[in-house]
Amino acid sequence: MSRPFQKILVIQTAFIGDVILATGVLEKLNQHYPKAQLDFLVRKGNEGLLKNHPFLHQTLVWDKKAGKYKNLLKMLRAIRSERYDLVINIQRFANSGFLTAFSKAKIKVGFDKNPFSWAFDKKVPHEINNGKHEVERNHELIAEYTDTVAAKPKLYPSGADFDKVSSLKTTPFICFAPASVWFTKQFPKEKWTEFLANIQFKGKIYALGAPTDQALCDEIIQQSGNTSAENLCGKLNLLESAALMKDAQMNYVNDSAPMHLASAMNAPTAAIFCSTIPEFGFGPLADQSTVIQIQEPLSCRPCGLHGKKACPEGHFKCGLRISIDTIVDTVDNSL
C-alpha cells in the first residue's frame, strides 16, 4: 500500500556492517518515493559511509560516547522538529526505539524485538536462521509501502575516492582484510600467513583494514615472505577501500564489515566463516561470491550469533581446520 510520504527517516545506529546492509532500504525507498526527503541516522563514526550519497537529504549523527544521553535527547529534538511522515527503525535496541517512539512521526515502524516496539504503528518479527538474509528482514519493514522484493545494499564512492586508489589498479590485484573486532570471526593469523605463502597470484596483493590492524597485517605479510603484498591499513577510508575492492580480482574477508563493503560494491568476494554461519543471514551478496568454512560438523559451531573474544572451547577448530587449499583454489580461479 503506497502512501504519499514526503519526509522519511531511516535509523540504524549499530556497527559498520549493519549500516551498509541498511542501505538496501534506501535504494528501495528512493525507487518508490524519489521526491521524498530521505534522511539516515547513524552513530558517530559511521557517517563517512554515506558521504555524498545521491539519495540522502541529510545524515544525522548520534554521538554515543561523549554525553551519550544528553546527545540522545538533542537528537530527539532534531528528529521531532523535522515532523517525519515515516520513521523506519532498523536497530533493535532501546536507544533507537526511544527516538522512534517519541519522534512524533505519523507512522513509526520497527522490529518487535525493540523494547519500545509497543509505541510503533507497525511491528515486524525479526527471526534469525529462517533462510532469510538480513537485507530481506530489513525490507519487511517497508514492504507494505514499496513492494515485495528486497534491494541489495549499495555504497557510492565519489570520483575523488576512485582517483585516490587509481594508482593501485595498474596491474591485476586482490585484496584481503584479515582483522575483525571479534576473535572467533577472524580467520587465524597463522592461516592468513599460510594463505599468502602459498598463493600463485602474479599481481599485487593489498591488505585492508583500520589503523589498528596495521601491526597484524605487517606481521602476516612479513612472515609469509610474499613480496607482492602491500599493507594499506589506515591509508584508505571506508569509501576509498570500497572503490578499490570494486575492481579486485577477488576480495578475501571474514564475516565482518569488509564483506559487506564488497557486497555493496558487487565486488568478487570469498567470505571466510569461522564461529558464525552464513545461515544467520549475513553472508556475501555479490554476484560472484563464495563462502569458505570448515567442512566437518562441530557440535560447538555456531557458538553464537555474534563473534566472541575467545573460543569458548579453547581449540578454535572452526578457524584452524579450514583448508588453505580451498582458499588458494579460489585465488587461482580468479586469475
Number of domains: 2
What profile does the largest beta sheet have?
Answer: 6 strands, parallel
Annotated CATH architecture of the largest domain: 3-Layer(aba) Sandwich
Shape: globular
Give the amount of beta strand, in percent.
Answer: 15-25%
Distance between the first and last residues' Cα: 47 Å
State the helicity in percent bands: 25-40%
Main CATH class of the largest domain: Alpha Beta
Explain this structure to me?
With 335 residues, the protein is of the alpha/beta class. The chain folds into 2 domains: 7-145, Glycogen Phosphorylase B (Rossmann fold); 159-333, Glycogen Phosphorylase B (Rossmann fold), CATH 3.40.50. It has helices at residues 16-32, 68-82, 94-101, 134-139, 159-165, 189-198, 214-224, 238-245, 257-264, 317-320, 324-333, and strands at 7-11, 37-43, 58-62, 86-89, 107-111, 122-124, 173-177, 204-207, 229-231, 251-254, 269-272, 289-292. It has a 6-stranded parallel beta sheet with strand order 3-2-1-4-5-6, with helices on both faces. Strands 9-8-7-10-11-12 form a 6-stranded parallel beta sheet, with helices on both faces. Helix 9 links the parallel strand 10 (251-254) and strand 11. Helix 5 (159-165) packs across helix 8 (238-245). The longest helix is centred in the N-terminal third of the chain and has 17 residues, at 16-32. The radius of gyration is 21 Å and the shape is globular. The termini are far apart. The mean pLDDT is 95.
